[in-house]
Description:
CATH superfamily of the domain at 69-231: GAF domain
CATH architecture of the domain at 69-231: 2-Layer Sandwich
Helix content: 40-55%
Shape: elongated
Radius of gyration: 30 Å
Order of helices and strands: HHEEHHEEHEHEEH
Strand order of the largest sheet: 4-3-7-6-5
Number of strands: 7
CATH class of the domain at 69-231: Alpha Beta
Amino acid sequence: xxxxxxxxxxxxxxxxxxxxxxxxxxxxxxxxxxxxxxxxxxxxxxxxxxxxxxxxxxxxxxxxxxxxxxxxxxxxxxxxxxxxxxxxxxxxxxxxxxxxxxxxxxxxxxxxxxxxxxxxxxxxxxxxxxxxxxxxxxxxxxxxxxxxxxxxxxxxxxxxxxxxxxxxxxxxxxxxxxxxxxxxxxxxxxxxxxxxxxxxxxxxxxxxxxxxxxxxxxxxxxxxxxxxxxxxxx
Length: 234
């Protein structure tokens, strides 16, 4: 006696699925049965009822709002990319006009501070510090031998061909930003030349969300290629 209600439930469920499958396979069904469409009503959140057409219009409006938001987001991203491309172009012109390594590093530091709005930026070049005694770039320039123990925390990054974005390790922050390390919420590490052959650029931000692992690194990679080309002239 207890099996019969369950059988009826299974039968009803199967019938609903069959109806669903039929309507999916025949999306023009209601075009040929307009009178049936006008008699259908769906429950409304307020407890009343709306026609199927009204419900469809409501769904379409919601989809339209989502598409409009997506379009606005894409436009905003495109504008940001255009602005970034213009900044990289301006920096490239400044680097091309620099006649020596000292002015090239100075142009890069100015570009990071004013053009890209970096809270902190450090250029790490691999080499003998004594060879750069004549360059006074303050804390922006850090010359170090590639096999120095201080670079151990960067071992994984230095073996990667792409830029890294996000929160960095304490040892990395302290090496790069010294007294300002505690203020850095996120950072971008950009290799210069293939395998960071000549060094890397670190851009630090006080905003923890400014650089994150999910962001595109295309422009950062291009920036690294640009800087490597400018620096390798010397």
